[in-house]
Design a protein that fits this description.
By secondary structure, the protein is an alpha/beta fold. Helix content is 30%, strand content 19%. It has 22 helices and 29 strands. It has an 8-stranded parallel β-barrel with strand order 3-4-6-10-11-12-13-14, surrounded by 6 helices. The chain has a 5-stranded parallel β-sheet with strand order 17-16-15-18-29, sandwiched between helices. Strands 20-27-21-22-23 form a 5-stranded parallel β-sheet.
Length: 683
């Protein structure tokens, strides 16, 4: 049964003409499916509603071709032909009694109209964001009139699609905020004073209401603080004042802070509920429901925010991805079943990769429609077969848990004294503690399964495995960091002197660290590991030089919104950072480096080298067992098949469990060559 102190989270909330059945609000989030893969998108949103989210929103939805969002995979409502894909989502959400919201957007400065080649329109003449060599044209009055008409037409279509809530986006990447920011330098009635700068947002709220009519609520998603100091909007003065000016005009305020990287920081850099200081006092200037985000997974934090009058609804994107059933689990008092987000932002990276959403904790996300997976359900066992899983890292744990859920007899053998594999080791590195949730959730679930036996301190040989006589063997034996320098930059072993002390992340994670002195950390892996090792060694007093062949430190973290914070942290610790630089080899006290663009070599004096390059799969058991005739069926999953980031290992374990004795399905969405539409760009 639910603890009564969480009852407050299940009170209904009035949003304009609608009643949300509880306080759980899935804020808009990108997902890489959008209007390119609308059936996959609708299924994913529908499962959120099934899991108890009272409001389920889309991602950005472009209102007009002069503000296309390409190449990002998002939504559009340019003409009536765009209604059916979004109607699919509305139906999927309504089927479970939730409200569907659409986030209307016009990107202005944010995008260069790469698809339509229309001149981008915005508050001022200035380059578009990023490095696309195109400028925005400052909008004149007729452009603003047109924008209002386009917006209203999109609101009409949103209503036709079945949306209950239209969200006027006023985020960095959309026009209403670009007018509202003090960085808007216009001199007409849309620039200068706050009253002038807020005018466009007010007009867009009004035309949304005109277009959508009585039965649809209007919400605003607003940045309350740009985190740009006195160059930008600050909550303490203009942020809260802007909300006061429009206080009762929308039916709901959905508030964010700073850029996407500020609004969705990873757990390496920010804890749960880090936006609370920006939300304080907002409810005193409006009677409308106020929503904020903060990677909320703790029902105590959520209930406290509502009880203390900070928020009316709990906004969540990432926690709703990691566990689409989070509200239901709180409602039913199943707190230990909540699959808590670990704050890694792999989900965000799927948006940049323009592929179906993926998540470290929830391997089913993005595969609900195309593979038929469900976060809470899985098909029953097809036989009485027994399965032996060797290795209790993220791959082995998820595989054991999901096969156990299907009802198979599963044995999991792990050579170490603790489960978790690389997650257990990596969680000891600076600021990666929350990653233990990957292990802990699975261990808790397995603990409830009488049909899954776990043996620790059990290193199995090929003979042990054969003696066990399982019908199916799954090898999840992981990988080790390479010691020979092979990685992305070098496909051959590097000439590394035996006189130079050499380490890998495995050494450091197992407590074998270089003595104090100069350390070269060579990062040819390009995700978090190089920087995290540099951070750890710097905390321990080493003079660290972090060298990478890439153009950016921890280059992949550009996709997880961590790059700037990583560089800031390393700089603060005195780590010297060198990009565009490869390693050619070492001798007794020197490393030979080279510029990857010119080949010019330099020498770095150093006392030790840490190689963060590639990983070697533990493939020995697979090779041995595959060579034996008459043995059990053998498969391999996770890093022991091909090392990758943790989300891939979890997914691989799930995949084996889903497909065992069933086979694989993979559905694709094809573009239907229906009659095309054409329309005048300017009314
Ligand atoms: P993955 O990310 O693919 O799950 P990990 O490296 O995290 O890989 O986990 C692999 C796990 O397998 C480790 O905990 C390791 O101790 C365990 N392991 C490796 N070889 C054996 C073996 N022969 N018998 C039992 N456990 C093993
Ligand atoms: Fe959370 Fe990581 Fe999943 Fe995103 S990918 S929802 S940050 S666990």
């Amino acid at each position: 049964m639910r603890d009564p102190r969480f009852d407050i989270l299940f009170e209904p909330v009035k949003i304009g003409p609608h009643i949300a059945r509880n306080r759980f609000y899935q804020t808009p989030h990108c997902n890489g499916m959008g209007n390119l893969r609308p059936q996959a998108h609708a299924r994913m949103r529908g499962i959120k509603a099934e899991g108890g989210w009272a409001v389920v929103n889309t991602e950005h939805c472009s209102v007009h071709p002069t503000g296309d969002l390409m190449p990002e995979v998002l939504q559009m409502l340019w003409d009536d032909g765009d209604i059916p894909p979004l109607a699919l989502m509305c139906d999927a959400v309504h089927e479970h009694g939730s409200l569907a919201g659409v986030q209307l957007a016009y990107p202005a400065n944010y995008n260069g109209n790469r698809l339509t080649r229309e001149v981008p329109l915005g508050p001022m003449d200035r380059p578009v964001s990023g490095y696309h060599p195109v400028q925005v044209r400052a909008m004149d009055k007729s452009d603003i009139r047109n924008l209002r008409d386009w917006w209203k037409a999109a609101a009409i279509r949103a209503r036709k699609a079945g949306f209950d809530i239209i969200n006027v986006d006023s985020n960095f990447s959309t026009i209403a905020f670009q007018f509202l920011s003090p960085r808007n330098q216009r001199s007409d009635e849309y620039g200068g004073s706050l009253a002038n700068r807020v005018r466009l947002l007010k007009e867009l709220i009004e035309v949304s209401r005109e277009g959508a009519g009585e039965g649809v609520a209007i919400s605003v998603r607003l940045i309350v603080d740009e985190l740009f100091g006195d160059q930008g909007l600050r909550v303490a003065d203009e942020g809260i004042e802007a909300i006061s000016m429009l206080a009762e005009l929308p039916d709901l305020w959905d508030l964010v802070v700073g850029t996407w990287a500020d609004d969705s920081p990873t757990s390496r850099f920010a804890p749960e509920n880090d936006h609370e200081p920006f939300m304080l006092g907002i409810k005193s200037v409006t009677t409308k429901p106020v929503i904020g985000v903060g990677r909320f997974t703790s029902p105590d934090t959520m209930a406290s925010l509502v009880r203390r009058g900070v928020l009316d609804m709990i906004g969540a994107a990432r926690p709703s991805i990691a566990d689409p059933f989070l509200p239901k689990k709180i409602e039913e008092g199943r707190y230990e079943d909540i699959r808590e987000c670990i704050g890694c932002n792999i989900c965000v990276s799927s948006h940049f990769a323009m592929v179906n959403l993926r998540c470290t904790q929830n391997p089913t996300i993005g595969d609900e429609w195309r593979r038929g997976w469900h976060p809470e359900r899985i098909g029953p066992a097809k036989s009485e077969k027994s399965v032996l899983i060797v290795g209790g890292g993220p791959a082995g744990l998820e595989c054991a848990r999901a096969l156990g859920q299907r009802g198979y007899r599963v044995t999991l053998a792990e050579s170490e004294k603790r489960l978790g594999g690389r997650v257990t080791l990596e969680a000891e590195l600076p600021c990666l503690r929350e990653w233990l949730r990957v292990r802990d959730w699975r261990v808790t679930q397995i603990g409830k399964m009488p049909n899954v036996d776990v043996y620790l301190s059990s290193e199995l040989s090929a003979e042990d495995i054969l003696e066990f006589e399982a019908d199916q063997v799954v090898l999840a034996t992981g990988s080790s960091w390479r010691k020979d320098g092979i990685g992305r930059a070098s496909h051959r072993p590097l000439p590394l002197s035996s006189l130079m002390p050499l380490y890998t992340p495995d050494d450091i994670m197992r407590g074998r660290c270089p003595p104090p002195g100069d350390v070269l950390v060579y990062d040819d892996d390009h995700y978090y590991m190089g920087a995290v090792i540099a951070e750890k060694l710097a905390y321990e007093g080493a003079q660290v030089t972090l060298v990478t062949p890439a153009a950016d430190i921890s280059a992949f973290t550009l996709n997880t919104l961590e790059n700037i914070r990583t560089v800031r942290r390393l700089q603060g610790l005195g780590v010297r950072m060198v990009t565009h630089t490869g390693l050619n080899g070492t001798d007794g006290d020197k490393a030979t480096l080279y510029d990857v663009r010119t080949g010019v070599e330099t020498i770095l004096d150093t006392d030790a080298v840490v190689l963060v390059t590639a990983r070697q799969p533990h493939g020995g058991l697979f090779a041995e067992l595959s060579d034996m005739s008459g043995g059990p069926a053998v498969s391999r999953i996770g890093d022991c098949e091909a090392p990758a980031a943790i989300f891939q290992a979890v997914w691989s374990g799930r995949r084996f469990a889903e497909e065992f004795e069933v086979g694989a399905t993979f559905r694709r969405e094809r573009i239907d060559l229906a009659p095309s539409s054409s329309f005048d760009l300017v009314p």
